Amino acid sequence: MTKERFLKELEASLKRLTAAEREDILRDYKEHFAFGLEEGKTEEEIASGLGSPQHIAKELLAEYHLEKLEATATTGNIMRAVWAVIGLSFFNLIIVLGPFIGFAGVVIAGWAVGVSFILSPLLVLIDLAITPSAFNLFNLFSSILLCGLGIFILVGMLHATKYIAKGFIRYLKYNASLVKGGLKRD
Predict the structure, then answer these.
(1) Which residue among 38, 55, 75, 86 has its CA within the 20 to 30 Å range from the CA of 104?
(2) Does 153 reside within a domain?
(3) Is 148 within a domain?
(4) Can you tell me where the transmembrane regions are (predicted)?
(5) Residues of the domain holding 159
(6) From residue 33, how far is each of 3, 30, 97, 111 by CA, in Å?
(7) Residue among 13, 11, 154, 165 at smallest CA distance from 77
(8) 136-175 per-position pLDDT tens digit
């Protein structure tokens, strides 16, 4: 593969990045080719030594999305980072997507339980409006107890969501470093 073809494929694979970031990356790879040519290598040898432009782009996009996720942990950034890390290898489909679905299920379930407990007194009031003769003080006091419990659950879920998100971000970074070449031991 020639230098021009390599750079065009790399640029096409990096189209999700901003123009400035793409130019910076392409400039680095042009320097790789320049140094390789000075050492007497051919463009084909340099390109084969660098690897596939598509694989390089996947790694760079995963790094980009992980850095963006660390800066601002929004749902969209988490989803983009998960898909970028999954794109690094087919094996990651199971290793990343499985825990992500599990953690997302726990977080969504916790928030749903907390909100439903808080809204339980409304159900007693609706029941009272529909069938006033079936009013039971035990139901009212039970719903007030559930409402208080729901507040505690939501406060706990606020902290749990924050810690689960931070832990999952660390897991994504760890997984991406493993896929890109293993862990480097000092």
Answers:
(1) 55
(2) yes
(3) yes
(4) 81-102, 108-130, 137-158
(5) 75-186
(6) 7, 5, 37, 53
(7) 165
(8) 888 889 999 999 999 999 999 999 999 998 898 888 888 8
